[in-house]
Amino acid sequence: MADADRALVAALRAELAAIDPARACDRAAEVAGLGSAAVRGDRPALGRLMVRLLREVPPAVPFRWEAAADHCRAAWLRGCFLARGSLSIGHGRLHLEFVVPVEEAAPLAARLAAVGLPAGVRTRRGRGVVTWKGADEIGTFLRWIGSSASLLELESRQVARAVRGDLNRLLNAESANLERAAAAAARQLDAIAMLEADGRLAGQPEVVRAVAARRRTTPEASLGELAEELQVPRGRVQRALERIESLALHPADEGGIATRGRRAERPGHDGPRAPSGRGAVVA
After folding, report:
1. 199-252, pLDDT tens digit by residue?
2. Continuous H helices in 1-146
3. Are residues 80 and 35 located together in one domain of the fold?
4. Do both 140 and 176 map to the same domain?
5. Which of 176, 239, 243, 266 shows the greatest Cβ crowding within 10 Å of its Cβ?
6. Whole-model pTM?
7. Looking at residue 13, which CATH number applies to its domain?
8. What kind and span of H or E run contains 95?
9. What whole-number distance in Å separates Cα of residue 67 and Cα of residue 104?
């Protein structure tokens, strides 16, 4: 993660650890969620939380999930996340996981599913891992266990990253379109110059000559803009430019569209061919 993302995750954990439950049952539930996990040196807020809560609630008090109210469940999950959960942000994607003993992974996943937050379960290096990778599920969970300001900052960053990604994709697509249009216009200008140099352009239909003239004066214009300027359908402009490029590439095909379908006469044949086959009249 980038330093800014690490700082945001640390701020989020500190925000959750600073919550002081008003209800005694919530304090007991959070202590049960914290369990006997060792406090890491990079999580001083968790250490202060455990000291504060353990002064009031003995850690041996069991937590009964099935009979607990939703606010007690949220407190228990908050303690569980602070002690055994982690949140990472990589390339704009969120990943939240709980690392617990293998035998605790399935029950934890079942509890999360019971509150509408189903999670994946797997085993990694002999430990159970309960995980989410979806931003919606992670946001809902963090909001439910008490995060507010840090979560808003996290969500705003996610939105900003998504907007930047969409904008970059649009700019890349537009840049590619402009490059293709510029390359096509360059080919068309070369073809027009070739046909004009050998006099073949003058023999083309009026719409082809008009399109060629307009392309020369406005090489940056799109097909739609050329069609609008000439007051002709866009398809006719496209076909005219394709004809110009085809004639420049294949000089022998000039007039091929006009003569297509005609039957070439045999050399030396001066009149209509005599009928042949049954019924033919022989003089």
Report:
1. 999 999 999 999 999 999 999 899 999 999 999 999 999 999 999 999 998 875
2. 3-17, 24-34, 44-54, 70-84, 102-114, 135-144
3. yes
4. no
5. 243
6. 0.60
7. 3.10.28.10
8. strand 93-100
9. 19
